[in-house]
Design a protein that fits this description.
Number of helices: 2
Distance between the termini: 26 Å
Helix content: 25-40%
Strand content: 25-35%
Strand order of the largest sheet: 1-2-3-6-7-5-4
Radius of gyration: 15 Å
Order of helices and strands: EEEHEEHEE
Length: 150
Amino acid sequence: MPARVGLHSSPSLALLQSTNYRYHVPGSPITLLLIVHEQRPIERPALFRTIFNAQQALRRQLSKEGDRWLDPDDDPYQVDDKRTGKCMIGMKSIHPGAKDGERLTYQGVLDVMQGLWDVLYLGRNGYNTIYQVKNGSVVVGNGKIVVGNV
């Protein structure tokens, strides 16, 4: 389970109760820093389908072409619950055009999906969430999971 860091306080989010989590995805260099907005729930079946379908698509991509930086058409990476539109996930590299370093890879995005699965689905924290993606000590991306448009 992720470490609960405490309540987030920000003038723009002052009316929302939120909890911060720091979660290192097991078996990967990815760490997620998440702010979970507990007053904005995501339907559990939609959360399941969205993360699961993204994981399946990413595994197929990695099997077919191997790992590499996200293609320009995939950065920002976005996926939604096609059946209902009740859950949408988006993430983007800090510097999409960089030759190395502050960019997301397909394996990194798959690792992020595993972290979202662990914290939000298995941890029963299925709420609108914003997050930062670290690969080791380098921040490589930001993202959010919401009801509505990313």
